[in-house]
Amino acid sequence: MSYWPIASWVMIALVISSVIGVLVFSPLLANPVYVMAKIDEGTLPGTSLLLMAAILPFMTLAVFFVLFVLVVFTFISIRRERKYLEIINRNRGPEHDEL
After folding, report:
1. Longest dimension (CA), the chain
2. C-alpha Rg value of the chain to the nearest Å
3. How far apart are CA 46 and CA 33, in angstroms?
4. Within a domain: residue 82?
5. pLDDT tens per residue across all 99 residues of the chain
6. Residue 58 in contact with residue 66, Cβ under 8 Å?
7. Total domain count, the chain
8. Is the pTM of this model over 0.70?
9. CA-CA distance, 99 to 88, in Å (whole number)?
10. Do the domain assignments include residue 90?
11. What are the angstrom distances between the C-alpha of 98 and each of 90, 91, 94?
12. First vs last C-alpha separation in the chain
């Protein structure tokens, strides 16, 4: 587990760089201000608007699904940790009960 702090920072950096990359190179996917400006200017093609309107509900559901999975995994991890702590405390003996 000594590699976990490094791996976690690498994953955070990858997520942040992905968000920045999408904002810079494909602002129609992630920048609502850019999209609204294009709609106000009238330069957003109708096919793009139709495609975005069709995909938005699926993306919203996908985000909620990912959040649900993260919450479930968090609860499972906490439950397992509690179980393992109980096993450790049971095997320690009575001389370590003050912890």
Report:
1. 76
2. 23
3. 18
4. no
5. 567 678 778 888 988 998 899 889 988 888 888 888 988 898 988 888 888 888 888 888 898 999 898 888 888 888 888 888 888 888 886 666 555
6. no
7. 1
8. no
9. 12
10. no
11. 13, 14, 9
12. 24
Which one-letter amino acid corresponds to residue 72?
A: V
- Supply the pLDDT for residue 89: 85
- Which long-range contacts link 11-16 to residues 24+ away (Cβ below 8 Å)? none
Amino acid type, 14: L
Residue 1 belongs to a domain: yes
SS3 letters across 12-66: HHHHHHHHHHHHHHCHHHHCHHHHHHHHHHCCCCHHHHHHHHHHHHHHHHHHHHH
Q: Which domain holds residue 18?
A: 1-44
CA distance 49 to 42: 11
What is the rounded CA–CA span in Å between residue 52 and residue 45? 11
DSSP 3: T
User: Going by C-beta distance under 8 Å and a sequence separation of 6 or more, which residues neighbour residue 1?
Assistant: none
